[in-house]
Amino acid sequence: FQVLQQQVGVLQDSANQNDERYTRAKADNAALQARVIMLEEQLRDTEIRYEEKLQDEQRRSKEYLARMDREKQLQLENASIRLQASETECANLKEEVARQRLRIDKFETQRQDLMDQIQDLNNQLNMSKEELKSYKDQEHRLRRDYDTQTQLLEELSREVERLRMETRTPALPTTSPESLRLEELHEEMSALRSENSHLHEVNEELQAQSSSCRP
After folding, report:
1. Is the pLDDT of residue 204 over 80?
2. CA dist list (Å): 86 to 75, 80, 82, 94, 95
């Protein structure tokens, strides 16, 4: 009986210990359940914040992509417009280059014609200078001849005047040598006047030609 009582006591102690362990385990379980519930709520809050953040990031990403697409489209449109403008400008420049080349060819032809005309004018100028020199030489010769004839005419005039004075004396017959000489001098003076007048006309003509030949 004592052994049984000891065994009952041991079993009672063991049961008490089990009750205590059970109570502690139950309390621990309740604490764990509360901890799990808190963690689950934190997890739900975290998931909700993550979803919200994810949705916000997705929204901003979509907006960014949409903005990038719009900017890309605008850049493409601007590039297309610039390309068309550049192509148009290039075509206009090609046409302008072609027109300028035609003008250059035309100016080159005109320049060559002007160079030929200038060469012809230079040749004519050289010929005119030679003619002018010839006219001046001839004019100088004619002037010398004219001066000589004028001097001779003056001498003959003086001689005629002297002979006239001598022929006024009644002693000299009309057939005297002085009278005959006077008539010859008159004829010579008349010829000299004609020749002098002709030389003067030729000289004036040469002067006119010289003036027209001057550059």
Report:
1. no
2. 16, 10, 6, 12, 14
CB 214 within 8 Å of CB 124: no
Lookup result for tokens 């739900």: 44
Give the CA distances from residue 28 to residues 18, 19, 20, 140, in Å, rounded to whole numbers and listed in that order.
15, 14, 12, 154
Helix, strand counts (H, E) of the chain: 2, 0
Q: Which of 213, 203, 209, 212 is nearest to 141 (CA)?
A: 203
Terminal CA-CA length for the chain: 172
**DSSP assignments along 109-125, one per residue:** HHHHHHHHHHHHHHHHH
CA dist 71 and 77 (Å) reads 10
pTM to 2 decimal places: 0.36
CA 27 to chain centre: 101
Per-residue pLDDT, 171: 44
Q: Report which of 188, 183, 178 is spatially closest to residue 155, judged by C-alpha positions.
A: 188
Instruction: Calculate Rg over the CA atoms of the chain.
Output: 72
The Cα 55–Cα 5 span in angstroms is 72
DSSP state of 214: -
